[in-house]
Amino acid sequence: MTASIIGPEDIDAVLATVPRQRIRPLDAVRALIRLARDPEDTQQVALMGIALAGRSQRRVFRRFVSFPAGQAVIREKRSLARTLDDHDYLRTLKPNSLGRHYLAFMEREGLSARGLIEATPAVTRKLSELPEPIRLFSSYTSRDMHDLYHVLTGYGRDELGEVCVLAVSYEQLRIRAFRLISTTGPFVVRRYLRKAGLDGDGVFAAVREARRIGRAAAWIPSLDIEALLAEDLDELRARLNLAEPVAYRAVIARIRTATGWNSGPFSALARTV
Question: Are 51 and 24 in contact (CB under 8 A)?
Fold first, then answer.
């Protein structure tokens, strides 16, 4: 690759060095079953992603490096996780900025970008086997941006919110594991709600809405994410054409009215009845 730009020949050379990986559907199903039993087990999402990856991300990588921001990530070897974990920097941003909302979200939930890396060692191992440009692309766009998608879209960390974020992310990144989870996840969410004595109405509609939101939005991986952190969140959502998750919020409002639940996993709510 040249120092200033990644051309078609460079991309072909990089992709030629990616190890061949066959799709392993049985491994994906096993991980899906484990995730359904414990929705907090983030590692299972990673294992599904590895099992189903195949050659699916090659087209997305080509698209990513066709934009100046994608070129910069590869050329400058950017680590989005490092920026997101710089809480002192995020505190200097304006109150309604994406960065400040992200900081509030992470502190409220007790999360960190580094924590997500540590929770998914299988991804770290797999990334280490890839050429550096692919490794930078994959970590930046799919792993490190996950919690930013929560903040950008307004979905919470309850099971339905997680499924909806992955539905949005699938439309953006075409990661097969995200499609699998967003297709099967509503059944799991509805089961938890029914165990809590609720009907689960609106769950499937919320996920369908999330996919529409992801399809209609600007292609977020093409943008300079570090620069977006300083932008006003409301203005940014409008610019990116990120619609409000109306159906999701309606489900959450009904749950709160019926149970007094405020936050946390639905699986815990089901265990209280």
Answer: yes
